[in-house]
């Protein structure tokens, strides 16, 4: 048989192919020749054939038939054969294939080989694709090589030990004695891999972390880092004028882990972090990488306040860098630290605002989020001016988030009600249909409560919608205000600015134009028709025209509009004596506060998510509307309220008249509660469970589920059925935290469809310990009389790493045994 072509000739031949089909033909022809050589057990050219096969594998062609040939090469005594064999094993084999177990004995022999390069090949292969079984069998050999004096083998053994620990964490203690002398090595390769090994051990085991803190690992790392900074030019380690930046970055990351939540370790590294921050060259990207790691370390440990200010100033300098990646990294880091070091970040406000004009959308978004985080009572006017300018010129995908942020900031820090109203109206005019639905009821409430601004507001809104009905939220607010305060508009009584002269007919012309405009949504038409009806008690000369308009829409194809018009016609014909009282002006509305993070939000035709906090009320009496806040978390109209488990007192709802007046708009599915004395509520349907054994014997057969698993937070549901009422399912949630920091202020909230009844009991705690060292439990009782399939939406809020976290999730995978 002729000798096969060399690898170099094969590469040259494949590169001459003009089409993919031609290349495929060449590959198939060569693969056939290689298969024939393998069948004939040709030992002479096996190494060459496997090398060609690996090249084909790199091009994306199948090469699995060469796996056993790789094992034969590994078993060979020639170094050139072993080298190709081990390379082939790393590329063609992994732990999912049983073939790799045949290598275990060969690797063990090679780890004890007399030649360091053969030992190095075996260590690389084990560290690359060793399975847990191989790692258990060969960990002893790796540990021996970790103690050798040969730096070439020690660095490879350290990386191999990292892989062993990842595969078999319980073998970690085996390598602990070998780590004592690793940091005394002068070879940078050994130092680098040793730091990687120590980092892995500290991250995976709290016990190891505590041990390394006790044995004074921090002073050793500080000494190495100081030598790197102070050492002169070293050609073998120099990168852009900085001595071994890769080792510096690794040491800084390990220091961050050691100093987190530990005062002594943090104190020991404060000085060296200040030296790194001040002595590192920033003209090259290498220096910026080290400074960024230094900043992360300073922010993560218990560092001094001056050091934190220095770190934030470094990030401020990053914002002036021409590299977009560095600017993005700086904005992201500042966003994480703004809550803890607000004043220090404020010093860079002008630079952050300038980033809003950046062409890169990622930088824009981060700059927008950070700008909102910097808003306070002192700078609200200037910041809102910049953010409104940004809202006017930004891309459509930013407008909704920017508008919502401006609404929240204005509500929290508004210096005056007029400024607040002007700002929100500017947003409605600028962002238009991009604003979220809850902006409309929030602005209506703000206007209602600003009694002295009614004339000014209705005049501004009237001028804003003249001839332009494209901004639906603006038109809805304007229609509502014209209906409420139309008499102030036509009277020309406006002290804040020059009044305009408007007749009753001109006002009705505007509202009728809204009704017939093709741009008006059904909800907007509802606002306009209701406004026209209200004006029948505020205008004196145009009542007949209003009657005519209302009667026309009694035959509208829009069912909602038709029903509204028919009811208004009935007011004119049968109950005209009641009309002035029914359509009188809305009183001042007080915002209903709840224990939870959200309130009932009435939107344009829908009801937004409203959440009920599970924390107990301060007294035995709980407002009834508080128990019914959880109305529409699933987004439909079939949502059940949460039933209170104690007698409640219904407060006087100052905002109830708004719902009475706009009740026909179907803004919300919640009842309106009038002032009432304390009454005893019927007992909750699930209360009887507490006086008897709760669960029957079939509970053990209901499998548990994982309802949520994200960002280290895991929520498990276990199920039990009631002895006394088979329709009741008792769900016990268990929340665990696999991250390295505790999650605090944890609140679990849930909503179910209307055919169910839900009761949330108090949680066992509000803090979820880190490293899965404990759990929070909470009981949910669900009454399901119709035996329908369970579905639930949950909301999770907690604080983690200094940031407030919030997430929504749907749970639809309840086991049939839990509800059938």
From TrEMBL:
GO cellular component: AP-1 adaptor complex; clathrin-coated pit; cytosol; perinuclear region of cytoplasm; recycling endosome
InterPro entries: Adaptor_Complx_Large_Subunit, AP1_complex_gsu, ARM-like, ARM-type_fold, Clathrin/coatomer_adapt-like_N, Clathrin_a/b/g-adaptin_app_Ig, Clathrin_app_Ig-like_sf, GAE_dom
Localization: Cytoplasm, Perinuclear region; Cytoplasmic vesicle, Clathrin-coated vesicle membrane; Golgi apparatus; Membrane, Coated pit
Keywords: Coated pit, Cytoplasm, Cytoplasmic vesicle, Golgi apparatus, Membrane, Protein transport, Transport
One GO biological process term: endosome to melanosome transport
MF-aspect GO terms: GTP-dependent protein binding; kinesin binding; small GTPase binding
GAE domain: residues covered: 700-815
Gene3D superfamilies according to UniProt: 2.60.40.1230, Leucine-rich Repeat Variant
PANTHER family for the chain: ADAPTIN, ALPHA/GAMMA/EPSILON
Stated family: Belongs to the adaptor complexes large subunit family.
Name of the featured protein: AP-1 complex subunit gamma
Gene that encodes the chain: AP1G1
């Amino acid at each position: 048989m002729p000798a096969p072509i060399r690898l170099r000739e094969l590469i040259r031949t494949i590169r001459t192919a003009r089409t993919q089909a031609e290349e495929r033909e060449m590959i198939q022809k060569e693969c056939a020749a290689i298969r024939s050589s393998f069948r004939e057990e040709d030992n002479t050219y096996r190494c060459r054939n496997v090398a060609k096969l690996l090249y084909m594998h790199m091009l994306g062609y199948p090469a699995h038939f060469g796996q056993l040939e790789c094992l034969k090469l590994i078993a060979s005594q020639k170094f050139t054969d072993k080298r190709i064999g081990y390379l082939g094993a790393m590329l063609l084999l992994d732990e999912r294939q049983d073939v790799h177990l045949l290598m275990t004995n060969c690797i063990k022999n090679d780890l004890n080989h007399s030649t360091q390069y053969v030992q190095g090949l075996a260590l690389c292969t084990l560290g690359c694709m060793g399975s847990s079984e191989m790692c258990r069998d060969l960990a002893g050999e790796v540990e021996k090589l970790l103690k050798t004096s040969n730096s070439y083998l020690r660095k490879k053994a350290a990386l191999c030990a990292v892989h062993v620990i990842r595969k078999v964490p319980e073998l970690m203690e085996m390598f602990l004695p070998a780590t004592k002398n690793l940091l005394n090595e002068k070879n940078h390769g050994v130092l680098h891999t040793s730091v990687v090994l120590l980092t892995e051990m500290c991250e995976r085991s709290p016990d190891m972390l505590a041990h390394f803190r006790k044995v004074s690992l921090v002073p050793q790392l500080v000494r190495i880092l100081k030598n790197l900074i102070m050492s002169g030019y070293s050609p073998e380690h120099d990168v852009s004028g900085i001595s071994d930046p890769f080792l510096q970055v690794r040491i800084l990351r390990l220091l961050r882990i050691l100093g987190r939540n530990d005062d002594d370790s943090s104190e020991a590294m404060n000085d060296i972090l200040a030296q790194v921050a001040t002595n590192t060259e920033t003209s090259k990207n290498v220096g910026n990488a080290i400074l960024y790691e230094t900043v992360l370390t300073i922010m993560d440990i218990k560092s001094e306040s001056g050091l934190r200010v220095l770190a934030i100033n470094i990030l401020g300098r990053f914002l002036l860098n021409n590299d977009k990646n560095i600017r993005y990294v700086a904005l992201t880091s500042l966003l994480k630290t703004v809550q803890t070091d607000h004043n220090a970040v404020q010093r860079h406000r002008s630079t952050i605002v300038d980033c809003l004009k950046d062409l890169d959308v990622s930088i824009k978004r981060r700059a927008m989020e950070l700008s909102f985080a910097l808003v306070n009572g002192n700078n609200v006017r200037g910041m809102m001016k910049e953010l409104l300018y940004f809202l006017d010129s930004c891309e459509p995908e930013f407008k909704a988030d920017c508008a919502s942020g401006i609404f929240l900031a204005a509500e929290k820090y508004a210096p005056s009600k007029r400024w607040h109203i002007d700002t929100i109206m500017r947003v409605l005019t600028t962002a238009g249909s991009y604003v979220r639905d809850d902006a409309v009821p929030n602005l209506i409430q703000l206007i209602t409560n600003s009694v002295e601004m009614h004339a000014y507001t209705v005049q501004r809104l009237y001028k804003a919608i003249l001839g332009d009905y494209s901004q639906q939220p603006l038109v809805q607010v304007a229609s509502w205000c014209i209906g409420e305060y139309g008499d102030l508009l036509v009277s020309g009584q406006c002290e804040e600015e020059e009044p305009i002269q408007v007749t009753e007919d001109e006002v009705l012309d505007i509202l009728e134009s809204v009704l017939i405009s093709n741009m008006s949504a059904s909800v907007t038409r509802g606002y306009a028709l209701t406004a026209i009806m209200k004006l029948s008690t505020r205008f004196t000369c145009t009542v007949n025209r209003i009657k005519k308009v209302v009667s026309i829409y009694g035959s509208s194809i829009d069912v909602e509009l038709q029903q509204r018009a028919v009811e208004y016609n009935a007011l004119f014909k049968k109950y005209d004596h009641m009309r002035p009282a029914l359509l009188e002006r809305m009183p001042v509305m007080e915002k209903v506060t709840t224990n939870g993070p959200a309130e009932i939000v009435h939107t344009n035709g829908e009801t937004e998510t409203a959440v009920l906090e599970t924390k107990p009320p301060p007294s035995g009496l709980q407002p009834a509307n508080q128990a019914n806040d959880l109305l529409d978390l699933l987004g439909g109209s079939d949502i059940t309220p949460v039933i209170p488990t104690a007698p409640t007192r219904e407060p006087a709802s100052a905002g109830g008249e708004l719902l009475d007046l706009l009740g026909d708009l179907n803004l919300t599915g919640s009842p309106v509660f009038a002032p009432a004395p304390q009454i005893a509520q019927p007992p909750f349907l699930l209360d009887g469970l507490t006086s008897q054994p709760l669960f029957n014997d079939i509970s053990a057969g209901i499998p548990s589920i994982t309802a949520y698993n994200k960002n280290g937070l895991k929520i498990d549901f276990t199920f039990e059925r009631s002895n006394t009422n088979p329709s009741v399912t008792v769900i016990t949630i268990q929340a665990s935290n696999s991250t390295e920091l505790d999650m605090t202020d944890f609140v679990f909230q849930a909503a179910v469809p209307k055919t169910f009844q839900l009761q949330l009991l108090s949680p066992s705690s509000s803090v979820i310990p880190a490293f899965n060292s404990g759990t929070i439990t909470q009981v949910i009782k669900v009454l399901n009389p119709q035996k329908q399939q369970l579905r639930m939406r949950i909301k999770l809020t907690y604080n983690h790493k200094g940031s407030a976290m919030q997430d929504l999730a749907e749970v639809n995978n309840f086991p049939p045994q839990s509800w059938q």
